[in-house]
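Follow-up to my earlier ticket, as requested here are the two runs.
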Amino acid sequence: MQPPFDKAYDDYIAAMIDKYNLDMEGYNNNVNFYRAYGDLELLDMLTEDLDAELKNVIKAMVANAPRIALIKQGIKDGVYYDLDFSDDIVYAAKQAIALKRKGMKVAEFVNQVSMFEGPTNVQREILTAFEKYNRSAKKINMFIRFISDA
């Protein structure tokens, strides 16, 4: 059984349904996305007008959200090992969007930050993959599926 969502999420979803006239599929996508990634800022980006490359990252995350939500629930229930990459995926997606808006490449970003304040190795690899495959939602989708199968 899924735990109830917090009040902020309930209010957010109600506003999204009203603002964008979401149908049931759109609502379910949002619920799965929130269960998988737990990030309202990225959830809001589902409706933003992002460039195609950034949209591919979000599309791949949406496609994998039901699976990642089930994995998270399995971890919580003790069925799976506690190996959850959803926070790393969220970090990489947000960083990819920020870097794209700044016009900065991932390699340039990684070289500028130190080992102690920069991304973890996992986050760096995910971020690098997002940049490498940014023209293909299908390849990003396969990459997220691959790391979630680990």
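Run two:
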Amino acid sequence: MVAGGAASGRRSRPKQAPGVQQRLTARRADVSVPFLMAPHSVALVLDPDFGARLYVLADQMHVWIVRSPTNDPIIDAFHAVSTSHSLERGVTSITLHTPVDGPEMVSLLEDVDLHHGIHGHSPPWTTLHLFGMSESPALYDALAQFGIDRIESASDRVVAYRPDPSDGPA
């Protein structure tokens, strides 16, 4: 008799093929963050008052978040309980000394792309969730440099999509 499985009366869940998109909804306290998970999603949070929402988001994808008096205790608490570093989920904190406009946004995106792009992660990021910024020509120009071909606005974020750069030119 085989332990587990059909012989014991329990049914095992079928494994999901890699790259299959899933509809996910994460809930913690009063936070609900629904989104369509791409093969590799990353968040860039420039909202200095993002706070406890970081817990939910960092459990779904890797988050790059600006340090601030509100965010710092949450970042520190997350790192205190985190057992390992992961490019799939987790937190990278960033310090900003100037407002983020065109050149500064490109620089931030270069850092994200270095770690989560074609040379740092397989598969490379294809979806970028941007919190604490609104759509603007400067944001569009910065995102275009990274192959973004679609941008959507939600109530709390801008979501940018690009084809998988490891697939080569379209």
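The only thing I checked on run two: Confidence is low (pLDDT under 50) at residues 1-38. Let me know what else you need.
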